């Protein structure tokens, strides 16, 4: 009767599996089938076992059998303890018995894999006793034939998986027991694997020779399975054991087999980066690694000799050979990057290894070169701790003969390696790097022909990142070589540029070959920046090396200055070359005047009449030349100071002649500010007065402000006055550049508060803020008003259309990187816009107005934010009411993208740097309308996104055009960006430098249980704590708290990460003060919101901090407020006894780390393991030894087609 029931259940399960896998069934039928199968998996464990064992028999289809194996694996992984000891033993016996049943030539590979995976799971669950009992029978079984041997290898493969792959089910002692048991068994396992490898590889050769191809395939499958098993031990088994039992030798031998060599390569890829032990086995490790070096180098020698032999044509080397070589090169890179010390003392092997890696580096195939690049970069980075050059002052030996002439702080072992990196190697590295800086898509046909078979980088290559990343690696390598061999690098880069220039001078169409010249500019910049980076004292005793370097670069500079290029594209390239020599000019100022004259010569050679659209190239080139002054001023330091008057006179002359446009004048003015920064504060003030005085006369008159800025229609009129419109643009952008260049150091901008800011009297721009800012505030207020509904409806169509994003902005916003910028919005390398040269010579169109509005907003916000960072001057000289009116009057009409920008560029600096005695005067005016509007807008948009699947944001102008999908993507991104920015602002409120009145966490521990009379009053904290100040002002504080609470329900982990620090400050304030409202909010609302946040998987990244906040609330507030206990008891799966036990556990430890772990355990218990943020931390077990590469072998389709799918243990869900 029982057997009938079992068969009936098996039939039902089989039908359910078939229905669940049949996509022609209705969705209701599939859903019902899945529900039934889940009920089986969670039902009676014995019924599950019996039914699954019935369904893995051959009577059933492969799909049903595979699913049944998964159910058996599910039982072993998750419900094993529910079986009695006798039932577990019986289960294990039946599973082991399946091995013999499945050992059939007709069985599919996936079924064999699942059987082996099941046995391996059982061994892991039962432990060493079963393994020790099972191992002899597995050894015996492997002798019965190739299929049995394949199954044994599969079991051995899956068994150690959890040693190298994190598995939450095998933590602590059980993991160590498994490792110990397998380690003790290595003397049996490794010889067995070697025997199977040797026996079945030999059998493959014999059977193929006898034309028994079917039998040969069985043996080949066993060899493949054995290699995969070996790879499962390669990462952790002692290397001396792998050598001792012949595994290294066996895998090395198989590298000569075209069928199995790619699988064998996986072994060497895994063992090559193994770390050297520090115990007595180190010498055995070195010996084994030396053997691996020999094996891989022998294979490399054969390939490199064959591919470079004059008797072998370029196309005669089969692609499979290159694939194999790529595997070998990858292992060689790992080997040298991790274990070069094993051959460092061998003067025969080390230079041969370096020559082979150089052979890969200069190989025509990009894949081989790319792998070798990683090795040379890692090696040089390790050997030269810094890319510095210290030229020898004695001059006894030239750099070309003295390996130590260009490096410092290198120990003896590194020196012993560097000795072998000689001039020839460095020269070859440089020559190859120079050639490969060119991208194939940019190379002209003539250039490609001259490079021969060299495979340049192309966008078609997959898996190697993008070209900019690859190029940056090449340039880093060039810098390292230049730091080690400065003279070699200088000579090679100069020779290469000379060759290119000569070729261009004789080319019929030089513009087509300009890409090669462009690519070498980066190499020149890298070389010069290292050689003249300040570590060499060229001002002291001059050595032979210094003189030689000077002669090389002087000669190169003279060659560049002699070029008579006047076309825009070559002019831009030549300007960049002169930029690159800036560090050289710092130490050799005699050459500066020639460079300045050349730059002005290039500038004046280009036309200034830019009405014709075809003149865009000339406009771009003129701006680039002006930007060159900035870059040279930064690199040449004080070398330009004697030439400032000459530059100023030339600027004035060109301006009088009408040959210097406003945008160009701004760039040259910016260069002046950079020059002046090297001369001291007085020089800066003088330069600023000279540059800003003419602007103030145009900027401060009230007439134009009343005409254009009194009402929105005045702005409409301004947009029709093209010349004046662009004049305002140039003025505002120059204000921004002046603030950035005038003593506003990066360290100040990145500081945590305003305490370290220079005083107003020290900052050169402080005295100019009083006349700069009032018109700017009126201008920004007028621009903000355009988005007000009542105003925008009345705007002309062209202006209204310009308020939306451009196609380029939309594409960039959603990450469509291939979209091209419109011509009117092309971005310049220094961050300025091509339209920066616009002087109003043409009629204004929609794109012009759009760019003008955007740039005024961008620069205007930056001016305000930078002004706030320069000290008290901004807050004292500016009326807070005027700033608030300008920024907040139309805040409710702002689009999310503009709101985010306002917070980021203006409000965050304003909050950071506002003096505490002015908080009352300044902050509430901004924070109340901001937080109130953001809370309402964000709450609505997030509600729409979570309930309807689409965020509804007010950016109607920004995203009006586009497909529905793109609009949805843009809306969600706009929502998330603003959410993260407002949460970032809240995190700024919690900065320690702005909350000196708050106690530390250590101090909190001493006051948490004191009497209420000992707690501080909130007023005592408000003057020294920005969070305390915020709490005193209910207007901004209540919506800020609401944002804080709601952020935990929004599915944005980054926003929660930012807001968590604000929550921590609230908790500290609640604990250390006697404010009842705050304490009740933290103890109840915030505590519950944080627990709610842990239910979202998106918060997994911050889950540890959230648990820490829960711990702080309970530890420090549960004695003063009943809410924390009430919140916990309101959770669905907790009892009063659970809570009492938790509290008792807390009393036994004072360790915050242990208390957090107890809190985490309680929360998981109380919610029935429903906290997805905590569950998401658990990693799933992933099979790592299944190669994802396609392999060509005689085992062919049986292996590759199955291994591409999820198999074995990885298939368990």
Give descriptors for this structure.
1213 residues; mainly alpha; globular
> What is the gyration radius calculated from CA atoms?
36 Å
Query: Using DSSP, what is the number of strands?
Result: 0
Contiguous runs where pLDDT drops below 50 for at least 5 residues: 166-171, 310-316, 387-409, 744-760, 818-834, 1178-1213
Treating each run of at least 4 consecutive H or I residues as one helix, how many helices?
58
Could you tell me how far the N terminus lies from the C terminus, measured between alpha carbons in angstroms?
33 Å
What is the molecular shape?
globular
**Beta fraction of the residues?**
under 5%
What's the overall average pLDDT, rounded?
Answer: 85
How is the main sheet built? none
- Helix content class: 55-70%
Class per helix and strand makeup: mainly alpha
Organism: Protea cynaroides
GO cellular component, one term: nucleus
Pfam families: Exportin-5, Xpo1
Protein name: Protein HASTY 1
Task: Explain the overall architecture.
With 1213 residues, the chain is mainly α. 67% of the residues lie in helices and 0% in strands. The chain is built from 58 helices and no strands. α20 runs antiparallel to α22 and α45 runs antiparallel to α46. The two termini are 33 Å apart. The C terminus is likely disordered.
Secondary-structure blueprint:
Elements: H1 2-21, H2 27-42, H3 45-55, H4 62-78, H5 85-102, H6 109-126, H7 128-141, H8 146-158, H9 161-164, H10 172-209, H11 213-234, H12 239-244, H13 247-254, H14 261-271, H15 282-308, H16 319-339, H17 349-361, H18 366-383, H19 412-418, H20 423-436, H21 445-451, H22 467-484, H23 486-505, H24 514-531, H25 544-561, H26 568-580, H27 582-587, H28 592-605, H29 616-636, H30 644-656, H31 662-677, H32 681-699, H33 702-709, H34 712-720, H35 722-741, H36 746-749, H37 769-785, H38 789-792, H39 797-802, H40 807-813, H41 846-868, H42 873-877, H43 880-888, H44 896-913, H45 919-948, H46 964-989, H47 1001-1007, H48 1018-1022, H49 1026-1032, H50 1034-1047, H51 1053-1072, H52 1076-1093, H53 1103-1117, H54 1123-1129, H55 1136-1147, H56 1152-1166, H57 1172-1175, H58 1196-1203
Helix pairs in contact: 1-2, 1-3, 3-4, 4-6, 5-6, 6-8, 7-10, 8-10, 8-11, 10-11, 11-14, 13-14, 14-16, 15-16, 15-17, 16-18, 17-18, 18-22, 20-22, 20-23, 22-23, 22-24, 23-24, 23-25, 24-26, 26-29, 28-29, 29-31, 31-32, 31-35, 33-34, 35-41, 37-41, 37-43, 41-44, 43-45, 44-46, 45-46, 45-50, 46-51, ...
InterPro entries: ARM-like, ARM-type_fold, Exportin-1/Importin-b-like, Exportin-5_C, XPO1/5
GO molecular function, one term: RNA binding
Domain Exportin-1/Importin-beta-like: 109-267
């Amino acid at each position: 009767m029982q057997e009938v029931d079992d068969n009936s259940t098996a039939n039902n399960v089989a039908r359910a599996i078939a229905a669940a896998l049949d996509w022609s069934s209705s969705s209701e039928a599939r859903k019902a089938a899945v529900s039934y199968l889940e009920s089986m998996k969670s039902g009676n464990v014995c019924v599950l076992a019996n039914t699954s064992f019935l369904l893995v028999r051959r009577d059933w289809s492969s799909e049903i059998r595979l699913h049944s194996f998964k159910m058996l694996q599910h039982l072993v992984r998750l419900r094993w303890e529910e079986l009695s000891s006798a039932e577990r033993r019986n289960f294990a016996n039946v599973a082991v018995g399946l091995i013999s049943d499945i050992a059939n030539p007709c069985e599919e590979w996936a079924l064999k894999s699942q059987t082996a995976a099941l046995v391996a799971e059982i061994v892991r669950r039962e432990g060493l006793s079963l393994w020790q009992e099972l191992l002899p029978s597995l050894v015996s079984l492997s002798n019965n034939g190739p299929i049995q041997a394949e199954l044994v290898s599969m079991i051995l493969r899956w068994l150690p998986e959890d040693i190298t792959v994190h598995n939450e089910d095998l933590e602590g002692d059980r993991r160590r027991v498994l490792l110990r048991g397998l380690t003790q068994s290595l003397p049996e396992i490794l010889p067995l694997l070697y025997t199977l490898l040797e026996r079945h590889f030999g059998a493959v050769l014999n059977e193929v020779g006898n034309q028994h191809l079917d039998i040969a395939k069985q043996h080949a499958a066993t060899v493949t399975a054995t290699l995969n098993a070996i790879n499962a031990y390669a990462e952790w088994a002692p290397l001396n054991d792998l050598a001792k039992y012949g595994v290294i030798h066996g895998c090395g031998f198989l590298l000569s087999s075209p069928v199995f060599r790619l699988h064998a390569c996986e072994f060497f890829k895994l063992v090559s980066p193994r770390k050297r032990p520090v115990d007595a086995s180190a010498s055995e490790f070195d010996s084994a690694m030396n053997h691996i070096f020999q094996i891989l180098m022998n294979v490399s020698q054969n390939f490199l000799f064959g591919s470079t032999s004059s008797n072998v044509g370029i196309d005669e080397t089969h692609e499979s050979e290159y694939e194999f070589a790529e595997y070998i090169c990858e292992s060689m890179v790992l080997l040298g990057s991790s274990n070069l010390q094993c051959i460092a003392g061998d003067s025969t092997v080390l230079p041969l290894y370096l020559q082979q890696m150089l052979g890969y580096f200069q190989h025509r195939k990009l894949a081989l070169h790319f792998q070798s690049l990683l090795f040379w970069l890692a090696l040089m980075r390790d050997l030269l701790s810094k890319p510095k050059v210290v030229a020898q002052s004695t001059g006894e030996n030239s750099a070309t003969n003295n390996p130590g002439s260009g490096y410092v702080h290198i120990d003896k072992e590194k020196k012993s390696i560097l000795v072998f990196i000689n001039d020839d190697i460095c020269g070859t590295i440089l020559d190859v790097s120079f050639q490969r800086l060119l991208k194939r898509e940019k190379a002209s046909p003539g250039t490609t022909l001259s490079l021969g078979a060299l495979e340049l980088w192309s966008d078609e290559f997959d898996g190697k990142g993008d070209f900019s990343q690859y190029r940056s690696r090449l340039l880093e390598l060039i810098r390292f070589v230049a730091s080690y061999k400065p003279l070699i690098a200088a000579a090679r880069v100069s020779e290469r540029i000379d060759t290119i220039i000569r070729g261009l001078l004789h080319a019929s169409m030089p513009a087509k070959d300009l890409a090669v010249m462009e690519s070498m500019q980066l190499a020149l910049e890298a070389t010069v920046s290292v050689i003249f980076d300040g570590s060499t004292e060229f001002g002291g005793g001059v050595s032979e090396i210094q003189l030689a370097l000077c002669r090389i670069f002087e000669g190169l500079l003279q060659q560049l200055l002699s070029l008579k290029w006047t076309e825009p594209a070559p002019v831009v390239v030549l300007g960049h070359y002169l930029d690159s020599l800036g560090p050289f000019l710092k130490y050799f100022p005699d050459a500066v005047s020639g460079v300045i004259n050349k730059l002005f010569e290039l500038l004046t050679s280009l036309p200034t009449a830019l009405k014709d659209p075809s003149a865009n190239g000339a406009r771009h080139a003129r701006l680039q030349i002006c930007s060159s002054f900035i870059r040279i001023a930064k690199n040449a330091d004080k070398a330009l100071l004697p030439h400032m008057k000459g530059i100023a006179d030339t600027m004035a002359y060109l301006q009088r002649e009408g040959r210097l446009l406003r945008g160009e004048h701004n760039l040259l003015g910016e260069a002046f500010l950079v020059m002046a920064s090297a001369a001291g504060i007085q020089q800066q003030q003088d330069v600023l007065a000279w540059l800003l005085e003419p602007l103030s006369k145009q900027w401060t008159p009230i007439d134009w402000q009343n005409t254009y800025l009194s009402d929105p229609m005045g702005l409409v009129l301004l947009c029709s006055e093209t010349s004046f419109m662009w004049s305002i643009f140039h003025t505002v952008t120059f204000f921004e550049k002046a603030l950035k260049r005038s003593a506003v150091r990066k360290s100040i901008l990145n500081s945590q508060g305003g305490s370290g800011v220079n005083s107003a009297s020290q900052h050169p721009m402080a005295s100019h803020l009083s006349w700069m800012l009032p018109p700017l505030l009126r201008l920004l207020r007028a621009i903000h008003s355009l988005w007000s509904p009542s105003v925008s409806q009345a705007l002309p169509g062209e202006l209204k259309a310009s308020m939306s994003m451009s196609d380029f902005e939309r594409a960039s916003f959603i990450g469509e990187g291939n979209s091209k910028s419109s011509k009117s919005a092309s971005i310049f390398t220094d961050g300025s816009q091509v339209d920066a040269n616009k002087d109003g010579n043409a009629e204004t169109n929609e794109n012009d107005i759009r760019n003008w509005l955007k740039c005024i907003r961008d620069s205007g916000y930056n001016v305000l934010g930078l002004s706030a960072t320069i000290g008290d001057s901004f807050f004292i000289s500016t009326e807070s009411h005027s700033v608030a009116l300008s920024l907040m009057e139309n805040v409710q009409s702002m689009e999310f993208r503009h709101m985010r920008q306002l917070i980021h560029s203006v409000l965050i600096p304003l909050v950071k740097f506002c003096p505490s005695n002015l908080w009352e005067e300044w902050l509430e005016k901004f924070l109340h309308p901001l937080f109130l509007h953001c809370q309402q807008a964000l709450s609505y948009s997030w509600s729409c996104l979570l309930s309807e699947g689409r965020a509804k944001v007010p950016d109607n102008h920004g995203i009006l055009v586009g497909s529905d999908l793109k609009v949805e993507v843009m809306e969600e991104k706009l929502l998330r960006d603003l959410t993260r920015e407002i949460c970032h602002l809240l995190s700024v409120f919690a900065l320690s430098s702005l909350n000196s009145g708050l106690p530390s966490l250590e101090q909190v521990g001493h006051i948490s249980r004191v009497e209420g009379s000992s707690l501080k009053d909130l007023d005592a904290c408000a003057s020294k704590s920005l969070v305390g100040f915020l709490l005193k002002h209910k207007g901004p504080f209540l919506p800020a708290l609401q944002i804080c609470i709601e952020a935990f329900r929004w599915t944005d982990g980054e926003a929660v990460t930012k807001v968590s620090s604000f929550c921590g400050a609230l908790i500290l304030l609640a604990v250390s003060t006697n404010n009842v409202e705050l304490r009740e909010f933290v103890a109840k609302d915030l505590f519950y919101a944080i627990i709610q946040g842990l239910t979202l998987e998106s918060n997994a990244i911050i889950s540890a901090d959230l648990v820490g906040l829960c711990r702080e609330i309970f530890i420090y507030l549960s004695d003063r407020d009943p809410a924390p206990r009430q919140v916990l008891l309101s959770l669905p799966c907790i009892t009063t006894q659970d809570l009492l036990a938790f509290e008792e556990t807390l009393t036994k430890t004072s360790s915050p780390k242990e208390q957090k772990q107890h809190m985490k355990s309680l929360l998981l218990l109380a919610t029935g393991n429903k906290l997805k943020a905590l569950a998401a931390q658990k990693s799933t077990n992933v099979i790592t030894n299944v190669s994802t590469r396609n392999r060509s072998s005689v085992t062919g389709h049986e292996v590759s087609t199955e291994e591409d799918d999820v198999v074995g243990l990885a298939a368990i869900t």
